[in-house]
Amino acid sequence: MKTLDLDSEWKLGTVVPFLGKCRPFVGYCCQRCTPKSWEFFFHKNMISLGFCNVIKISEGNTRFRGWLVRRLCCFFTVCDWKICADTPSDLQKRIFHSKRVQDIVCQKVPQSKGDAPETSMPVPQWMQRIHSILCQIQSSVSPLLLRLSHWVLLKLLNQMFLGVIIHNGQLEMVRRAAEVPDVPVVFLSTHKSQLDRLLLQLLLISQGLGTPRVTCEYKTYPSKCRTLLALLGGVFLPQGVEQARDSEQGVLSRAVLASSSTQTLSLWTSLWTICRAACRGLGCVRVDFAQPFSLQEYVANSLFRQSSSGKCLEELLLPEILGKRCSILDCEKLEQWSPGSKGIIALNTEQEILVYNLGLHTLSAGVSCSAIMAVQIMSALFLHKHKEGVFLSQLMQDFVWLTEEILLRSYDVGFSGQVRDVVLHALFLLRHCISLYHLSLGDVLVVPKKTDEAMTELSQHSTALLPVFIQEAVGVCAASALLVELLPYLGSPEQLRDVVLVQEELHNKTVLLVQLLPRDFLLCQPCQSLYNYCQVAVDKLIQCGLLVAEEMPSDVLVCDTAQKRFTKRLLWKATDDFADSDSDYSDETGNCCFKISQVENCSNFFVFLCCLLSPLLKTLERATVFLWEMESPQSESQYVEKLHCFLARKAKEDSSFECVCRTLTTISVRIYKELGVLREAVGQGEPILHLSETFRAKENQEKLEKFIQQFIYS
């Protein structure tokens, strides 16, 4: 057996991103909440427009031809870009007449106790103060500096990546939105990397879609750097934004900012990411845009159906966990917001609900339009299916299988070419995480490394697949929990294959898990009930063949252990906002019986789906163990940091580095606050966390740990 070095002994070819036609068009906006936008910003012809490589500049991109143009085509192309650098001449007047600023002028917002009323201040003085704040926020963009910086950026990107690919149909949708008169376009990023905003600015300018403004922290940069960034389109948070909410300067600065700008950028982090990418070579980049939608249309429809009814997670699930009574399965979970959370603009409860729901919609659309890359598929296979190693021939078969499963769920992939070429290129990009051994049989053994760095990198890549299979993963974890309940009553684990699952009980168990997890993690849109979400999850297990319909003879074990306590009038039936299929659920359907498929491919897929959700569930389980070590009350950031260090120590014991993720740590703390495990108290600058009275008892901590453990496949 010979060890292979990917950097020297294998000359791996690269793969040109997919430029074919048979691909799902992804990222549609919600047809229920924004039906007019869904129809206006899309046309079926957009699907066949194909892809383009934004950083591939040739003579054809310029107005000129010839030998010199072919060598300076990048320079000529950048010079031809249309850059809108003019600030509207009536900007100050428009800001002055905006509602927020007028509220300040008319003293409609509360002032601090020491502030004297200034209702008598004349308009010119107000305009002067607005002008001084605007000077801190932004200045006129320099077209020369913008062209120069983007020329340098193009050169860097060509060194870093094989291509930056975008779908022409998605660009056309954005172009339609940008052409709507007197309506600004706001871009929200899912933050795949620190290069997101640089790539977005380059894309929009190169495609003639405008010059975006990017917000920067005022205190982060010295004055000379602020001046340079302002000329490149930087928008700085004025100093007054960081003052107390009730101070006059803070209120006015936030009002002016709210009337004129967008979101934050860390310059040095972006530059570091560029240098790191240039050294490593990161293959291809795929940039995707979800379908634009009208905010005005969304707000109008949301306010019409917006409801604050429901129960908090503590009321819904805590009695079930403690064994006091069954969970309330026929009630929606009421999402919670931290009171007094800091932001640029203060919002009331109704506005917070609206913004949260808007975030769920945009997150769902943004994630669904993101193409899955070959490295992400390969990382998921190594982490959740082949931790001990796999032959290259088998790895290629699994790669094809998982790619087909992704495409079947209307998600796109960002690659094409011969399977062997794609797989080898992905292995080359993951060369720091794997070892290759050439066997005498002619095959190659691929083994993922067990180091902290390798497992962490594989985990970061593999998380991209969870949104694709999230509903199936929730369903199989619920099915696994039902089977675990029966284990004590069976002679051997082999008898589990004969167990019949009742659909209603599987649905109930799925509801428990879905209630526990946040909506934004589940990608459950606010216009969809959790009950319906669970029903779809079970249906998907049936559709993909993991559950097989089974008639129920008398001698077969039936997993039907929960009490029948559904109310006849379910919440999801009582509203008219959901699809007609929601009302098709009947007692006859609920009593259908299923077995877990014993086909080898289905069994492997079942385990794979369980493993996709296990990082968060294991993090929650270990966060429960950490409760035993919790000391006196401490700030939330301090608690999160200590929990993260605890998870890192645990990961070194069993190599479960997929749990060492700050995002998962934050989600687990959020869940435990909503569940009533942790209580919040007002502190200086940030909330103080302490253990609730209920969970100071070790017995209740063990009950919580047991509740979470049932969903973890082992």
From TrEMBL:
Q: Set out the biological process GO terms recorded for this chain's protein.
A: fatty acid metabolic process; glycerol-3-phosphate metabolic process; phospholipid biosynthetic process; piRNA processing; triglyceride biosynthetic process
Where does the GPAT/DHAPAT C-terminal domain lie?
A: 268-680
**Domain of life assignment:** Eukaryota
Looking up Pfam families in the UniProt record yields: GPAT_C
Known InterPro entries for this protein?
GPAT/DHAPAT (IPR022284), GPAT/DHAPAT_C (IPR045520)
GO cellular component terms, semicolon-separated = mitochondrial membrane
**GO MF annotation list:** glycerol-3-phosphate O-acyltransferase activity
| Residues forming coiled coils | none
Name the record gives this protein: GPAT/DHAPAT C-terminal domain-containing protein
